[in-house]
Amino acid sequence: MDLGLKGLRAVVTGGTKGIGRAAADIFAEEGASVAVCARNADGVKAAVKDLKAKGVNAYGADVDVADKSALQKFIADSAAALGGIDILVANGHVYPEVDGTQVDAAYAERKYLYRNLRNGQYEDVSLTGGSGITANAKARGFAVGDYDNDGDLDAVVNCVNAVPQLLRCDSTLNRSWVKIRLVGTKSNKTGIGARIKVVAQTGSPVLNAKPGAPLTQIEDVKSCNGYYSASDLRIHFGLNDAKKVDLVEIRWPSGQVDSLKDLDVKHLYVIEEGGKILKNEVLVVAKKKG
From 120's CA, which of 61, 85, 179, 288 has a CA 20 to 30 Å away? Predict the structure, then answer.
């Protein structure tokens, strides 16, 4: 199962020890939030306590991972608890032999799409997401990026023994956004491991914050974000109705911290370690075929 760590930065490990716990620790070390589920209430409580003691944003629950409805609820609950954007879940059983058996799962499954209601809750909008979401597929992981440069995020899903699927978002809402692409000098060239903070007045309420408070978003630059999946290294921040970006702060693996203020929305900024803007451009939207 791939939760699409881009933006959400949360991992469902499915366990409190062994491989599951090792996965939680690895993702936590890379700056991800971690959600732990297992049929072991004491183990989950201990794992979450230990992760929080290490400064990790963690959440856990006693869940039977074989119960699909319980697992779906856990995903929504953990996302609300940990914070994040909308959620896309790509599914597919690991054994084709389950088809034709009494197991409550199929080899090819539909995806799940949850809309962030910005009040700590999520709405399941899977059945209105179109055939790309509702059609069964032998999905494994997916990468996220602005495939056509139109300012919203698309997804490419990799499937077993099948061609990849392109889930193309063609939103007409015309929201604001900014994209940041990093170029390291003292750090690695692509800025892997850097943490980007973006602050802007988006015109939308922020949960548990004073009215009028700006929205702060934090994203890490990662080489991959799921099973055989590497997302766009142009880190995307949705900004709703913002007229400008108040602050971009970059913490590089080298320890260097760069701050840039009053940047334009709907622009791609290529920023070199040290704070130099190498490129500031308006993206050219790709033409649709047909």
Answer: 179
What is the pLDDT, as a whole number, of residue 79? 62
What's the rounded mean pLDDT across residues 77-105?
Answer: 77
pTM: predicted TM-score of the whole model, two decimal places:
0.72
Q: What is the CA radius of gyration of the chain?
A: 19
Look up residue 173 and give its amino acid. L
> In this prediction, what percent of the chain has a pLDDT beyond 70?
80
Beta strands in 125-243 (DSSP E): 139-145, 154-159, 165-167, 176-183, 195-200, 215-220, 235-240
Q: What is the mean pLDDT of residues 152-179?
A: 91
Burial class (CB in 10 A: 0-12, 13-18, 19+), 234: middle
CB 62 within 8 A of CB 45: no
Structure token pair of residue 269: 């900024």
Distance CA 247, CA 260 (A): 6
| Predicted pLDDT at 209 | 60
Which residues pair with residue 51 across a beta bridge? Answer: none
The single-letter code of the amino acid at 270 is V
- Neighbouring CB atoms inside 10 A of 259's CB total 10
Tell me what pLDDT residue 206 has: 63
Give Cβ neighbours of residue 8 (< 8 Å, ≥ 6 apart).
33, 79, 82, 84, 85, 87
Can you tell me the distance from the alpha carbon of 243 to that of 132, in angstroms, rounded to the nearest whole number?
33
Tokens of 116: 């962030």
